[in-house]
Amino acid sequence: MVLALVASSVLFVALRMNKSDDLPAGVPPRPAPIAATPEINAVSATAPQPTASGVTRQIAAAARAPQLGEFTGQVSDSLTGAILWSKSPSTPRLPASNTKILTAAAALLGLPHDARLTTTVVVGTDGQVIVKGAGDPTLSAQSKRSQTFYTDPGRISDLADQVRRSGVPVTSVAVDTSAYTGPTMDSSWSRDDIKGGDIAPIEALMTDGARIDPLNEYSPRVDNPAITAGEQLAKALGVDVPVTNVTAPAGARTVATVRSAPLVTRVNDMLRYSDNVLAEALGVELSVARGGPATLAGGTSAVKQTLADNKFDVSNVTLRDTSGLSYRNLVPAALLDKLMAAASGPTGSDQPIDSKIRPMLDGLPVAGGTGTLADRFAVGENPGAGWVRAKTGTLTGVSSLTGIVQTVDGRVLSFALISGGTSPADARPALDNVAGKLRECGCR
After folding, report:
1. pTM given for the model
2. d(CA 300, CA 420)
3. Which positions are tagged coiled coil (predicted)?
4. How many CB atoms lie within 10 A of CB 17?
5. CB 3.0 to 4.6 Å from 116: which of 157, 259, 336, 410, for a disulfide?
């Protein structure tokens, strides 16, 4: 009875607390809650047009910073394509990961935007199943519904489920990497970069970009991506027999397939996280689509030729890879800026090239917010925070930044900035300062 009385008292107090006091006569009723309706507003086509002299005055001091070392670059008006500032823009420079701007643009120009890669499992002999790689490094060994590094990848777990449903009695797992040919590492790369997490042997079959820790962007990579992927499928199937590398017999029965995310998604993952492995795979994919070899060298040739076919000047471009890891790459700032101006300029039926490469803007890291710019452009310190979207590039003694910025007047500017000969720890803040000055630009 005591408990019942206490409970009744608590209920009475709760009801009284939830009951609003009567309002005096004449007091207006409480207004309805404010409803937020977020929307994306298009940049005004009539935003004030900056001038070359205005831009030069705005960034002059920042562009003279000694931390920039040997500095080249170009800034353009995305709406008109007019060059507003430049410094030795045609000089070939070591671009580091700004090379990926070329790779992204070429892939979007040369491949269907909805293109997907299909990894298959076929039946061999004596209970063996064979995983045939298709050049998709985003394939994931993460369990169902678990987080993955890449966006919407195919999964080993799905392959295993399909194999089990097929009823095939599996006694061993093998891998087929014949979709790629040639060396798996460029001679200008260091094998130390595998343990450093920058690259892996580029094989037609791998999972999670060959990361040992599949969710860690900077994880060391494995030396044998295809065998590792086969071992992951074997484990999922409960098979404890060494995985071998074979060539699947022609006409072998397919018992499982998974597909990658569409090309646009993979391009943007590559840009956002500056993923070298994915960049190299995209290069090979482009080469094959053009009828070229499924090799790393074929990828570099395909990127250059695709850009040339679309009227971009690649005469001063030297590519040893499509990721920017090689110190033998050379790209002028003018080309990087031209690609960015095209991506951010007017689109429509009369601008087919610009329309095709526009999607890569979505993959550019946001200053102070996402990807490789998440810890740069400190909010409250650099006015470019949240307004600059750009691809970073870093090697020892090399720093680069290519992207776009919306000025305070609502005008979109493209830019490409390349620094060399100084420490990235010093050069990157100096590059960010130049881009931040562009954000504050009225520049008329």
Report:
1. 0.90
2. 23
3. none
4. 7
5. 259
